Structures
1.
Amino acid sequence: MMMDNGTFDVEAWNEDYARRYTVSTIVMVLYLILGIIGNLLVLIVYSTKMHSKHDDRYFIPFLASVDLSGCIISTSLILIENNLPYKYPDSATCKFLNVSACGLIISSMFLLLVISIQRYQKICRPFGFQMNLSCKRIVAFGALLLASAFAFPTIFLYQTVEVDHPTKNITGIRCGPVPNTETFGEVYRGIVITAEVISVICMSVLYALVGYTLVKKMKPKPKSNHPIVPTSTQLSKAEKSKEESETYDSFTESQTIEKIGVKPSRRSVKNKKTKGLSGKQYSLMFMMISLVSCLCFFPPWILVLLETKDKTFWNHLSYKEAQVLIIVRGLFVVNFVVNPFIYGFFDSKFRHKVWKCLSFCRIEGNVNCVRPKVK
């Protein structure tokens, strides 16, 4: 691209490369809009309209806060790199966005690991140690602090660096690796990816045990020819099961009642329909969230490893191949966007509250149109 005076400068170089990232820019803007709207709705609805004595939803506002922050930071990082590839603003912005994006990615993974531990306790060990409110708060903040510690070394790996044009006598400014930190960067990225892979393996094992327990409990029991009269000891055990395992409540309660031969009342059936998800459904929901998260992280991890191994990896790609891989490189952002849709798919109560919230906002915005005039 030539300027009006026939010269090729940094501005023209920057605009030329910015056009190459147009598809990625459009995708990131879409992620940003969906992520902000979806996670804000989750925070508003779960924090103000989903009060419950059950603790299954406790970690959802934490996860939504991380998802909202991660969506804003990660898309900002990619959008600036797409639109100002050779005119990056300054080193402070470069360092802040890279450190924050790395910390929020690790925070999301560690929070999902904490949630998988809680699901294992509730489903597989309902009478064992359970996290109380204080423990959940400590564990959640501990996971965020640990993620921050893992991400902090990134501040020494990125800054604005000068890049010379291969044929023209011009120099641009990019956000890139700090010179002479290649070895440190490779070791650090290896540690971070190893920690994330270990988290994925632990989640897989825990959810495999949760799934096995749920399937085992769902198997039909052989019917007895003689009616079983529940004793006071059996009833007290059923009540104790209900108290000690809030998340496991509807699933365990139904199994225990079926076991002792008591038929649930109409009121209990009605309450079961209106109180929201059961422990089994919450477990399935978080299993889906963890699975999608892993699927979103693995392709970017592979690209990072390829980039680390081959410094000229991107130079050997055609234009179309580069466009596809650029989008794959930013696939981790989907992890911060998709969770509100998973909540809505599994949790009918959440869908109902969101619909009421949106309907209220729509009515308030058109109140003058719908309110009848009084003469």
2.
Amino acid sequence: MERKLRTTFVTAASGLLLLVVGLSGCSMFSTSNDPVDCNIVKTQRAAGQTDAQIASNLNATEDKVAACSSGSEHDTNKQTVVPEKGY
């Protein structure tokens, strides 16, 4: 009886641990903290769209879209690796 109780406890604890890890891992795929590509914003502004429309298109907030107009332009693809010749 004690062995069955211990096995049930271990199984329940393992399942709970998997559930907690799974739910916490979902935030890793959230796009709410992703930066807005200012090149896309610039193109959509040139097409005559408002910041609200652009934010809706990009699933971003208006303040992130508005931040593209302030300051100098920056490349959002700084992590892109371009191989040298011969690769």
